[in-house]
């Protein structure tokens, strides 16, 4: 038997190391988002990629496109990463994503023109598609139901750490007049990925993944280890294992294929995979269209428009990312206490309000030049408030929610749709934000404020609560024929009552019913309406 270093570690230490590993991987994601804010306005970069002359940007569309192409790469990487993660394991998918990110980062640092930058950032984007698909799912699979959100928030703070590192490297090099000012920040992104690539082979695989590929003994050993060296006869651990066993037998069903998901899960019946795709993509796109990338990538430009000097704008742009770290750490204490839905609703409402205020204050500064300093400071304060609550609420939940709502046997492939939504949201916003600031000025914040308010009814009606529920219990939430939250909860409670509160039994019933339905459909007949005993009809 091969030596596996994790076996000699205490369970609590192993879980800590796994979370630290995940955090280092997410530093890369955050760094790559923040680094373009550090290099976008540097004279050497502007001249090299041809978005302006004499250190001044004249082609805002091309500037936005060079940022956005990274996210378009992620659109493809997320699906490849999800497929590989579910078929060959989380570790192999993360290793491949890290390798692609290293290649892309090195090429960015050595870039000679816009075309080379596009290729490099696309490769990097494919790599982050792998990492963003696998790492959040891995964290969710290792965490327990009662603290899954807080565990995720603690690790995901690393995302903002990466943004902060990028900003402060850029700030430290602000007076450098050579190409080192922009090449070094772009090349530095390979550092966290090199650490990830060098350590991933020594870590244990996801126990939930191992169960789906018939490596049961190893899966139970790892699961017991990360549950605090629990005895395999521990009732709580036995209940968790029973829930997992209930769904393993259906892992190879065609309903879970990526091809079927692209067809909106048309063979998924009571699992309603198409509905889950909509929620995963939707929550990520809503998050990005709240306006966060206007702050992450173009914060210094916003502060200059508010009347601050270039030096002070750069300083504030770095400080605001530290506020983001504080917000994500704050989520550790709130996300599992208040739940996903209340936190999302609160976040969207507060963010919408402060963006409207920030835009209005910026306009007042234009109308009253004598008081522009005071109005500008107040406008910036609103942006700081926005960043804190965004990090504490919407950011955390948008990334964890798509990892919670999928059946185990396809969690990585399912989460790929969430990453796709993230990539589309990031790509479209970074593409249009420079033009929006140029054409709309302060009204840009009003537009994003309106998107925040528009997200509230979507969350209220369509996003069921996942707080405190095991990943297997969450699977039962989607058995209702109705997409509305109220009906989701009603059907969920009916299923549990009928199964005597036994989640494993309920899972088996659903899977057996789906298999019967498939056999009936294959033979040309089909189950009659209501025959499932769950909701109304078979899809």
Automatic annotation (TrEMBL):
GO terms for cellular component: membrane. Keywords: Membrane, Signal, Transmembrane, Transmembrane helix, Transport. The chain crosses the membrane at residues 64-81, 93-112, 118-139, 151-170, 182-203, 277-303, 315-335, 342-361, 381-402, 414-439, 445-463. It is a multi-pass membrane protein. It is found in: Membrane. One of its GO terms (molecular function) is carbohydrate:proton symporter activity. It holds the Pfam family Sugar_tr. Residues 1-25 form the signal peptide. The keyword Transmembrane applies. Residues 18-467 form the Major facilitator superfamily (MFS) profile domain. The keyword Transmembrane helix applies. Belongs to the major facilitator superfamily. Sugar transporter (TC 2.A.1.1) family. PANTHER family: MONOSACCHARIDE TRANSPORTER, PUTATIVE (AFU_ORTHOLOGUE AFUA_2G02110)-RELATED, PLASTIDIC GLUCOSE TRANSPORTER 4. This is Major facilitator superfamily (MFS) profile domain-containing protein.
């Amino acid at each position: 038997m091969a030596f596996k270093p994790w076996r000699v570690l205490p369970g609590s230490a192993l879980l800590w190391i796994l979370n630290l590993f995940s955090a280092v991987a997410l530093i890369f994601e955050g760094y790559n988002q923040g680094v373009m804010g550090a290099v976008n306005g540097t004279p050497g970069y502007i001249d090299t990629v041809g978005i302006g002359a004499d250190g001044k940007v004249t082609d805002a569309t091309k500037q936005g496109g060079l940022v956005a192409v990274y996210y378009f790469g992620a659109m493809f990487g997320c699906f490849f990463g999800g497929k590989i993660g579910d078929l060959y394991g989380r570790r192999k998918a993360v290793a491949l994503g890290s390798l692609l990110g290293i290649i892309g980062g090195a090429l960015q640092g050595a870039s000679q023109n816009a075309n080379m930058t596009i290729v490099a950032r696309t490769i990097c984007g494919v790599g982050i598609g792998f990492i963003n698909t696998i790492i959040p799912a891995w964290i969710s699979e290792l965490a327990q139901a009662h603290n899954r959100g807080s565990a995720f928030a603690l690790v995901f703070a690393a995302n903002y750490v990466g943004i902060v590192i990028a900003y402060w490297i850029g700030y430290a090099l602000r007076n450098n007049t050579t190409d080192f000012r922009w090449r070094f920040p772009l090349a530095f992104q390979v550092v966290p990925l090199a650490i990830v690539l060098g350590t991933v082979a020594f870590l244990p695989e996801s126990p939930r993944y191992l169960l789906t590929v018939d490596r049961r003994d190893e899966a139970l050993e790892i699961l017991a280890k990360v549950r605090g060296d629990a005895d395999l006869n521990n009732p709580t651990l036995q209940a968790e294992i029973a829930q997992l066993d209930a769904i393993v037998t259906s892992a190879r069903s065609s309903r879970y294929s990526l091809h079927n998901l692209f067809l909106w899960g048309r063979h998924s019946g009571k699992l309603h995979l198409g509905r889950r795709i909509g929620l995963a993509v939707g929550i990520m796109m809503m998050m990005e269209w709240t306006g966060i990338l206007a702050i992450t990538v173009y914060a210094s430009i916003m502060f200059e428009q508010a009347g601050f000097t270039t030096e002070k704008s750069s300083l504030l742009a770095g400080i605001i990312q530290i506020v983001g770290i504080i917000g994500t750490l704050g989520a550790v204490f709130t996300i599992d206490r208040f739940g996903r839905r209340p936190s999302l609703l609160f976040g969207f409402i507060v963010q919408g309000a402060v963006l409207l205020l920030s835009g209005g204050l910026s306009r007042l500064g234009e109308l009253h030049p004598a008081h522009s300093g005071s109005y500008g400071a107040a406008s910036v304060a609103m942006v700081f408030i926005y960043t804190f609550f965004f990090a504490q609420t919407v950011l955390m939940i948008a990334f964890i929610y798509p990892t919670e709502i999928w059946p185990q046997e396809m969690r990585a492939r399912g989460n790929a749709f969430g990453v796709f939504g993230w990539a589309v949201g990031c790509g479209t916003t970074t593409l249009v934000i420079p033009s929006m600031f140029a054409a709309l000025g302060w009204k840009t914040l009003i537009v994003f404020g309106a998107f925040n308010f528009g997200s509230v009814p979507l969350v209220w009606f369509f996003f069921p609560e996942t707080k405190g529920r095991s990943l297997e219990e969450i699977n039962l939430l989607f058995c209702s024929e109705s997409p509305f939250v109220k009906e989701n909860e009603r059907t969920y409670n009916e299923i549990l009552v009928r199964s005597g509160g036994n989640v494993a039994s309920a899972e088996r019933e659903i899977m057996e019913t789906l298999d019967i339905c498939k056999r009936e459909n294959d033979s040309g007949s089909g189950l009659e309406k209501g025959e499932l005993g769950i909701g109304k009809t078979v899809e």
